[in-house]
Each structure stands twice: as C-alpha cells, then as structure tokens.
Design a protein that fits this description.
Layout (H helix, E strand, L loop, with lengths): L1 H10 L9 H8 L5 H11 L7 H10 L2 H12 L9 H10 L3 H14 L4 H7 L5 H12 L9 H7 L5 H10 L1 H4 L3 H10 L5 H13 L8 H7 L5 H14 L1 H6 L8 H24 L7 H6 L4
Length: 296
C-alpha cells in the first residue's frame, strides 16, 4: 500500500494527471488501504472533465468506499458530470443508506437543471430517506428549482414526520413572495408533530409582513403543549411586524410562562418599534400592557 500511496501522491504534483493514470486511480478508490484511497481521491480531485466516465463507472459498480468517493468527486464537475445522472439517480433511489443518499442528491443538484427531473421523481419515491434527501438538495439549487416548489409543498403532507419537517425547512427560500406557499405552511402550523409545527412557525416568521394571514394561527400556537413550539410562534409574531404586534394586547394571556415566551420574542424588537412609531408621531406600542393580557 505504501507504493500505491506514494505513486498517487506523486501524480498530484502534475498540473494535469496523465490520462493513462485516470482509470487506475479510479480503481484505487476501492483500495483496502485507506491511505491509498485518500491519495487517489486527492489526485483525482485535480482532474478535469476526462475523468468523469471513470468516476461514473466506479459509482455504478464499485464497493461502498469507491461509490462514496466517486459520488463526491463527481460533484466537483458540476454540469460536466451530466452523463452520470442515471447512475446517481439509481444510487439515490436504491442504496438505502441515508448518508449516501444525501451526498448523491447533492451531487445531482450540483449538476444543475438537467438533474432536476430526477430529483423531483425522488420526491415521490417509496423510500422516505430518498424523499428527504431530494428535498434538501432541491432547496440548495435556488431559483433553478422554482419548478419543484409545488412538489415540495406536497411533501409537507408526507406520512413521515422527518420528511414533512425537511420539506418545510427547505421551503424557506421560496415562501416569502408566494402566497400559496405561505397558506400551505399556515396549515402545517397545526401538524401533529412538534418538530414540524416548530419548523413551520420559523419559516412563516421569515416571511415577515407577507405572512400577516398566519397571525391568528400563530397566536393559537402560543398555548401549544410544547415549549419550543410556543417560543417559535412568539418569535414569528415578532418578525411579522405591526399586524402581529397589534394583536397582542387583545390576547387573554393566561400564564406567566406564556408571557415570558412573548417577552423573549419581543425584547429585541421593542427599541426599534419605539423609535419608528415615535418618529412618525404615533404612540409607542405598549409592550408591558401586552404582556399583562386583557384580563389582568
């Protein structure tokens, strides 16, 4: 193994790895010696487009170590790795290993729009880990994934809580200027899983004034059975702005604990709101009164 490792290390010194060495280095990704595998990986990471066929072959028929390393190396080639899409899709759908599925989905996303149909297909696959990995990868594609927004919305009703939570979180970059996404997330505020409710509250709050329609549902969440959910709801109300803050004085806040949640959420906004309102000649918002509740 020392000789193999040394040879791979030597190839790293070339500005361009010689073509005859590429298939040998690709095969070394499955070397039983971890040092040799690492040396081959580093040498291949300096290679250009011509290495893609060898990496694709290794991803298709290699051992577990070789597949993982080949998938990661293909990601470096972005759109130039488009010929690997069918192989990567099969790994994502059939390998059954969550970590490898996530790495594979990220590689598909790095390839770009040509891989989006395969990622969208994975959103509907039987394996929940494949659906979750695909959702996370699609979200990382930014505006290139606009066509998949409705697919991710459908996942907010998935039977698996972890998939629903991931789908909600992945909608962060798409929700703010899409009323139908905000409306769907507002329904998710009543999800049966606490992590999903909390995630939905966070994303709705990130939409700020565009999420005014979610204020009544967030106010109801202030009495959720879970502390973290109540905290997320209060933070979101603070972010949404005037529509949410104006609603607070009408609340029947029954417990000191809920008042504490709201206090934590509003603390950082208090000074800014005071400055803005007094500058416009308005009376400042009375946070103290809001925290007392209407029946106090």
């Amino acid at each position: 193994p020392q000789i193999r490792r040394g040879a791979a290390d030597a190839l790293r010194e070339f500005n361009k790895v010689p073509a005859p060495a590429l298939p040998v280095l690709a095969e070394m990704l499955d070397d039983p010696d971890s040092g040799a595998r690492d040396a081959a990986y580093l040498a291949l990471s300096r290679s250009k487009r011509e290495v893609v066929p060898y990496l694709t072959a290794k991803a298709k028929a290699g051992g577990m170590a070789g597949v993982e390393l080949a998938v990661d190396l293909l990601r470096r080639h972005g759109p130039d790795a488009r010929e690997a899409i069918p192989v990567l899709r099969d790994i994502l759908l059939t390998c059954g290993l969550p970590t490898l599925q996530q790495r594979t989905a990220r590689t598909l996303a790095a390839i770009g729009p040509e891989a989006l149909p395969d990622l969208r297909w994975a959103l509907k696959f039987d394996d929940p880990n494949a659906r979750r990995a695909a959702a996370m990868a699609i979200a990382g594609m930014g505006t290139a994934a606009n066509d998949a927004v409705d697919d991710m919305l459908a996942l907010t009703e998935d039977k698996e809580p972890r998939v629903r939570e991931s789908a909600v979180l992945m909608l962060r970059g798409f929700a703010r200027k899409r009323p139908h996404v905000i409306a769907s997330l507002t329904k998710t505020l009543k999800d049966g899983d606490r992590s999903v409710r909390r995630a939905a509250a966070d994303i709705v709050g990130s939409c700020r004034e565009n999420a005014n329609s979610a204020v009544p549902a967030l106010i109801e969440m202030l009495e959720d059975t879970e502390w973290r959910v109540r905290e997320a709801a209060a933070n979101s109300l603070q972010k949404i702005g005037p529509a949410a803050r104006e609603a607070l004085p009408t609340l029947d806040i029954k417990t000191n604990e809920i008042r504490a949640v709201i206090a934590c959420a509003l603390y950082h906004a208090a000074q800014e709101t005071y400055r803005n309102r007094t500058a416009d000649g308005e009376a400042p918002f009375d946070y103290a009164q809001a925290l007392k509740g209407k029946n106090s």
